[in-house]
Design brief:
13-stranded mixed beta sheet, alpha+beta
Length: 362
């Protein structure tokens, strides 16, 4: 084996690339003889890299970027509690009482999922949207870029139906028509007036992917607006001087009052107030936590693999001039993260191959 100790660094680099080219040609010939193994290796790497990129693309903006609302730390979710302490949705009558009697919220809104079918010009489209009470856009702190949000009068039973469009729906289905405000469209066969279009950067984190919003238009006399009909989610914006903990204390006090007033309607008193970021990241944190456990296991296995692999490679590697500590640390980090994982199994297989037979096979 050729030694490169004592030679200048540029010569070492040239020789290293020359040997790398030879190694790559040798590897390609080996892969041609084992296409199944090659396909499995490529697929495994593709899945690993793709999954990592996908998870990072979801986790990074949620965990590390600010939520896309003014003063996002003041946006909270409000939940009822069950007997076992678990959180659940809220009935409309309960929401109406809490929204009326609280001193913690600058605005509060109730919401439910909505999947209307848009008909008329073009092919019918099934859309994702929300029924929301009038203060929805006040809670998030974002106003339409065209037109306006909802009026209290439009959130009453019997009011003429109106809708606010997402920027994407406006551009995609209505061609970005600046005169879309005031236009009548058909949603589930019902004539509905467009009153606003949201900005391009607006994202509804309460219902990701929502394309349009319409008033809830509930009233307490409706059979599905009862206190035990807990199918609504509730969001609110805290007043500037109110903390999440203080808001929860007030919600619990109001809940106790409701239980005393309607003892047959509630299993137990109790409310939960959770800031929106914590609410959103609960699911992400679970995924990240599982990932960390798997990473820790992989790291432990990798350390053991590195010891065995280093012993195996001692007689194969070139002798090189000592590198400075920073270079060595950087190279070591890359090798441990990539080379050991990718090359441990092939190296183990190579250790069991008779070198004479391998050379003859070439």
């Amino acid at each position: 084996m050729r030694k490169i100790v004592g030679r200048d660094r540029s010569t070492q680099v040239v020789d290293a690339f020359a040997d790398l080219g030879g190694d790559l040609r040798l590897a390609l010939r080996g892969l041609r003889r084992n296409p199944g193994f090659a396909a499995a290796a490529v697929l495994t790497l593709a899945l690993g890299i793709g999954a990592t990129a996908a998870i990072y693309s979801v986790v990074e903006p949620v965990l590390f970027e600010p939520l896309p609302y003014p003063d996002p730390e003041r946006v909270v979710m409000v939940w009822e509690r069950d007997l076992d302490g678990q959180t659940s949705n809220v009935g409309f009558a309960t929401f109406a009482d809490l929204a009326r009697d609280n001193h913690s919220f600058a605005a509060a809104t109730a919401l439910s999922y909505w999947t209307p079918t848009l008909t008329g010009a073009g092919e019918p489209s099934r859309l994702t949207g929300q029924h929301v009470s009038a203060a929805f856009f006040d809670v998030l702190g974002v106003k339409p870029v065209l037109g306006r949000g909802f009026l209290e009068a439009e959130d009453q039973r019997g009011a003429d139906p109106v809708v606010v469009l997402s920027h994407g729906l406006w551009r995609g289905r209505f061609g970005g028509d600046p005169d879309v405000v005031g236009r009548t469209i058909l949603l589930n066969g019902q004539a509905t007036t467009v009153i606003g279009v949201m900005p391009a950067g607006f994202e509804d984190l309460l219902t990701p992917g929502a394309e349009l919003w319409t008033p809830l238009r509930y009233e307490a006399s409706l059979p599905w607006a009862c206190r035990t009909c807990r199918h609504l989610r509730v969001a609110a914006r805290l007043r500037p001087e109110v903390t999440v903990a203080a808001a929860e204390q007030e919600m619990n006090r109001l809940s106790e009052n409701l239980v005393r007033a309607y003892p047959t309607e509630y299993a137990a008193p109790g409310m939960a107030v959770v800031d929106l970021r914590s609410q959103i990241t609960r699911g992400v944190a679970m995924i990240v936590g599982q990932g960390l456990r798997l990473t820790a296991l992989g790291a432990a296995l990798g350390i053991g693999a590195s010891i065995a692999l280093s012993r195996f490679l001692e007689g194969l590697l070139y002798e090189v001039s000592p590198a400075d500590p920073a270079t060595y640390a950087g190279v070591s980090a890359v090798l441990v993260a990539v080379a050991l994982v990718a090359c441990w199994i092939p190296a183990r297989r190579a250790a069991r191959i008779d070198p004479v037979q391998a050379l003859r096979a070439e």
